[in-house]
Amino acid sequence: MNNVFKMVKYFKYSRRCTYNLTNAAADCTIFSLSSGYGKCGVSVIRVSGPRTRHALQTLLGNRHELKARYAYLKSIYHPETKEIIDKGLVLWFPGPASFTGEDSCEFQIHGSLAVIAAMLDALGKVPGLRSATAGEFTKRAFYGGKIDLTEVEGLADLIHAETEAQRKQAMLQSAGALSRVYDNWRKRLIRCAAHLEAYIDFAEEENIEDDVVLHLTKELRHIITEIRNHLNDQRQGEMLRNGVRTAIVGPPNVDTAGLRKHTKDVVELEGISRAKECLHNADLILLLTDARELLRNISTYKQSAQDYQTDYLQELDLDANKLLGKRIQLIANKIDLLSMTELQKLAQIDNVLKITCKQPTTDIVQPFLRHFEKLLCELCGEPTAEHPRITHARYRQQLERCIEHIHIFLNEYAPDIFPDTAISAQKLRNALKCIERITGHVSSDDILDVVFKDFCIGK
Known about the structure:
Layout: H1 2-13, E1 29-33, E2 40-48, H2 52-60, E3 71-77, E4 84-93, E5 104-111, H3 113-124, E6 129-131, H4 136-143, H5 149-160, H6 164-174, H7 177-206, H8 212-231, H9 236-242, E7 246-249, H10 266-280, E8 284-290, H11 291-301, H12 305-315, E9 327-333, H13 340-347, E10 352-354, H14 362-380, H15 393-412, H16 421-439, H17 445-452
Parallel strand pairs: 1-6, 7-8, 8-9, 9-10
Antiparallel strand pairs: 1-2, 2-5, 3-4, 4-5
């Protein structure tokens, strides 16, 4: 019984993706400047591929054998002129224990434009070497099975990170936080599919228990629950990665086109239409109002800030029901016009930020920015290794499709339905492929082109 399951699992599903290195043109050895281009103290030039050792011998000479992962101070020579180019540190990383999985090395040289140009020219003169294309080192690491596609995209995000929170999230993803979550689901789906295949192929001959389907359907429901919990993140990871789409709305002259119910002006109508479109696509809506008007409505009609906000949206010809689920922040402007008594009353109203655009002094702006920063932190959340966030819309789409395929399978296996088991098994394979498209175990050129398009040359 167990041997049958192991046999089916091994031959049909447990194959890890053995990446075809010919896709990365791995017969060539590539080189490039990996540090930033321009004058600097030290620049790093990276080489990767089967002729890396030959490149080292050509530029350093055959006098010394380099020990793996040790830094050596060496004179570097041009292979044609035999003139010394520079004196710098050289490191040798034999494959597969390297970033790309291939033989690799690094030259850490002085960062003048002349030294860099001479080094690149020297490497170009070594037979079998060529300049790397953008992202090619990372692509070779992916094809070599050193990292999966989520880690590749995490590395790209790390390169482009502009904030501390973005850096932290990208670092966690590049270190495999998301990969471990998805690989766990992948392995469990493989196990479920393998057990179902065994039930199809060997149920009669091997006397496999009928409750095997019952056990795997129970496991599939657990997987669905876990994926749904993962999806139910209010797009925090995507907002942190891409930025919070924010719309500032209100009457005329606050930011987007001023909103009001009655106008016949064609140009203004177009502006209002675009403002509303921006509003519905926004993650955060900053609703700007006059501070005195806010106080007057609350004191006269005994409204809460939430009641006033709903009425104010209606005045602006906005349907509050269509904005459900969006974060709306009420901001009271023109507080420089308020008396001390009015300021005290305004301070007692919860969930209202206060600002003046005419006299933005430090004692007004700083509290506003602190509250606004807190608001953004609440929207984006705090990235953690225990609960990594979805960072790309592509992941979300594939996870939703995965759930759909599992649901189809479970519905076909209702107690009163007797499905074609072989056809239903395909639904599990489709669910598995959805996960594998995220990690890159099932890859396509169009996905890879999107992933690697933003990488810089030398990475």
